[in-house]
Amino acid sequence: MVIQRWQSVLLFISALCMAIVCFIPFATAGSQLVMPTELTVFLVLNITTAILLLVSIFMFNNMRRQKLITLLGIFLMLVSFFTGATSAYVNYDDVNLAIGGCALFAVALITAIWAYRRIVADQKLLRAADRLR
User: Fold this and answer.
1) 106 phi/psi in degrees, rounded to 5
2) Of the candidates 118, 130, 131, 132, which has an alpha carbon nearest to the alpha carbon of residue 63?
3) What is the 3-state secondary structure (H, E, C) of 32-84?
4) How confident is the prediction along the chain (133 residues), in pLDDT tens digits per residue?
5) Three-class SS state of 92
6) Prediction pTM value
7) Which residues contact 15 (CB under 8 A, 6 or more apart)?
8) Buried-most residue among 11, 33, 95, 109 (CB within 10 A)?
């Protein structure tokens, strides 16, 4: 069996990374870990992004809507990262971003962008097939 829709796998990986970000330290403030549960807006954005990316997986019948939801998820990922970093710097002294949290954000962002590009490629392929009919 061959997977035909790799964007579904990529969107799932991205959603999983965003869900994991909710449970690992995002930054360190001195010797204290800054958890996402302490930054409410950051946590809500991460959960919303993960849910949007999961919903996007099941929008395969409507590629236009799937692209839109994936783009919204990518935008929310970027907003979430900058909101979390800004909140950590404002609320705590001597803040350093944690490697694990930033790496998961990077993986989530890369896989979401890759999935978006795969959706666009599928759309082009379907248009070409429709023209041949």
Assistant:
1) -65, -45
2) 118
3) EEECHHHCHHHHHHHHHHHHHHHHHHCCCCCHHHHHHHHHHHHHHHHHHHHHH
4) 445 688 999 999 999 999 999 989 888 888 888 888 778 888 899 999 999 999 999 988 888 999 999 999 999 999 999 988 888 888 888 888 888 889 999 999 999 999 999 999 988 888 887 776 6
5) coil
6) 0.88
7) 49, 50, 51, 53, 54, 57, 108
8) 11
